[in-house]
Every structure is written in structure tokens, then in C-alpha cells.
Amino acid sequence: MTEINRKTKETDIKCKVDTQGNGKSNINTGVGFFDHMLEALSKHSGIDIDLSCDGDLHIDAHHTVEDCGIVLGKALKDEIFPIENVERYGNATVVMDEAATICALDLSNRPFLVYEVNLSGKVGEFDVELAEEFFHALVMNAGLTCHIINERGRNKHHILEASFKAFAVALRRAMARNEKLGVPSTKGVL
Fold this sequence. Notes:
The chain is built from four helices and ten strands. The longest helix has 19 residues, at about 60-80. The chain is an alpha+beta fold. Helix 1 (about 30-45) runs parallel beside helix 4 (about 155-175) and helix 2 (about 60-80) packs parallel to helix 3.
């Protein structure tokens, strides 16, 4: 289990992550839809996440969402690396009614994000472009190469939820144990 606390002038975050968990979560960011997405990420990745954030929501949710991505990313990096005896690569397509989103990722220790989820507007009080900010902060701090691509959909809630769940399932598959691989790289290190 990794515990990270981060306090800035904009947010005060306390976070515990256990990649060997059971997908249990205790999330409180003050942003209801974002809490729902993080709970789905925890459940479908099998990662226990305990996260609370006291952010400057009187301005908007941007700092809260981005900073939670930073902290979760750092915690994941501490949990995942150095990697050994895992699959390394994972992918998933998740459907939510009419929406389908794919995620492919690599525990590469070379952070890069491709995010092709073209949405605007809000889901509840959540600005949908903040999902990209979250994933960018998370993968950059976790050392993941990640592609999230929405294939189809009309309902913003469904599209975003499929995106978070696809990421979660791809991450779970990438972290799956495979004793035959040792360090899953021809370089011998990641």
C-alpha cells in the first residue's frame, strides 16, 4: 500500500492506493460525478483507493480533478514500478448502452497520452473536458503510455463512464501476474 498526501494553495489531498486490493474505494473529492468515476476505476481495476480532496471548488473543479490525477498517478507509480512478472500491456473495450470506448496501455515508464474523446459541456456539474486533464495528470505521473479512444456514443455520462472503466480494465489486465515474463522488456528494465 502506498500513501501520499499533497497540500497546495489549491488542494489538500490524502490518498492511499493498494494495487493488490479488491477494488474497494472510499472517495470524497466534493465533485459528485468525479467521485462516481473514481469509484468505477477502483472497482473495475481491482485497486483499493482511499482518496479525499479539499479543493478550491468555489472557483471550479479543475484543480481538484487535475491534482487528484497527479496524486493517484504518483501512488500508482510507487505501486507498479519496478515491474516484474506482470503482463505489462493491457487493453479493453467497455460499452455503456450506446457508448463504446477503448483503452490500450503499456506500463512503459514512458508517459504518453492519446485521448480522443471529443465532448463538450457538462455531466451534472462536471465539466467534461476535465476527464482529459485527469487522465493526463495520472498517466504522466504514473509512467504509463495510454490511448483512450471513444468509438461511438451520444450520452456524455455513458461515454465518460465507459472511458474510466476501459482504463480500469486495461490497467488490471496490464498488472496481471505472469511469472514467465520476469522483467517484461528486452531491455531488461522499465
